[in-house]
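Exercise 3.2. Students should predict the tertiary structure of the chain below and write it as structure tokens, then compare their answer with the key that follows.

Predict this chain's 3D structure.
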Amino acid sequence: MDWTLILSVILFFNILFAIVVVFFERKNPTAALAWLMVLFLLPPLGFALYLIFGQNFTRQKMFTLKEEADQYLKGLFEEQHQDLVDREFRFANPAAEQYRDTILALLRNNQALVTEKNEVEVYTDGKEKFAALFEAIGAARHHIHLEYFIVNDDELGRSVVHALAEKAKEGVEVRLLFDAVGTRAGGGSKEAFRELTDAGGEIGVFFPSLYRVNYRNHRKIAVIDGTVGFIGGFNIGDEYLGTGPLGYWRDTAVRITGRAVNMLQLRFFLDWNHATGEYHGSDPVYFPDPEVPGTVPVQIVSGGPDTRWSPIKEGYIKLINSARSSVYIQSPYFVPDESVTDALRLAALSGVDVRVMIPCKPDHPFVYWASLSFVGDLLDAGVRAYTYDNGFIHAKTIVVDGTAGSVGSANWDVRSFKLNFEANAFFYDTTVGGEMKRRFVRDLEVCTEITPELYAARPRWVRMKESVSRLFSPLG
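Answer key:
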């Protein structure tokens, strides 16, 4: 066997693969360097890993149909955009005025229409959140639309499917959209939804290609009769009720009534269209004009590989930069890029009370150790960091000055900023912001602070894990 020839062939193809990676990752040099390291450490397995976990250079073709559907949005936003630019738009809620530039940026960046007449209720406990969801499902009269990354085939998952099937038997339109990889990981399959489909309900599977771990639909949205909506971090599964191996599950979701529900509805239909080829977004029956006495301004912001920029991340940065007194962040995965890190560091150096809360235990060890590394970098600037010790924290939130913030599915990492489809609700209101801030402060009672002294004293083996995990963090 001529080993020289074999090694020459491997070297040739590795160089060829490296050229391919550099070409397709030319807009993200940090990720390109990380993938080049994988290529040369694991030849020729590295390129196979890139095809599975890395960027998808066919994504332009993949999302053509969805982009055509997105054209429907343009007319909805032109008038509001011009009013905001001309400063003719007058906010009924005074808290929103100080965030006019953030609202305009998200409108331009993501066509995220701001709606004002909304009521928002915050849930941080799974039992309370799902009780509210079941109540809304039971009250449905025309349609129920659910979109989740994970719908497990367990007690909670089967209860949701059964509740949907019962409404379908009553003649209510039921559509359930789930991600193929996320739901398959929880034991869900088309067979698990047989009761629903036999009752006349419809299911949609987002991006059924199971060999791809990127470009997954990570959104968690529910819309009932176009008048009640839910968005947040909870998936559908027993662990989200606190009965899984990680113990109590601390998450955040909001229930919205008012005109922002129309934006959740539109988001659902765009994703349903991509998964099934059916688009109902032009039918006014799904977009009522509810008269709700609420005054909370809300923007529904979507991110993913089909967006030119990273609107949710940039919304986070705008909120951080606007802070005058406090920035409180919760995320199970805290692997920010340089732009987010700089914003947090500068806010802390400017005297803003910046605090970050992450789990005390990993559900994904690689990301957990990387999170500790990034948190450690911020301590010297005055950022305060905490581990949540009362189970597992899965919330993806930011609240600024107790007056504005965001709740949704987007973590503070590259996967949520670039690789997965996410959706967040941005709100500008002292009542909702004050409630979010109070809950964060209450969570501090069951946290351990990662002080600079404690972080500096961490064992050598922890430092090694952090270093290795951080090295590969640009890969997502």
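Discussion points: The mean pLDDT is 84. DSSP finds 20 helices and 19 strands in the chain.
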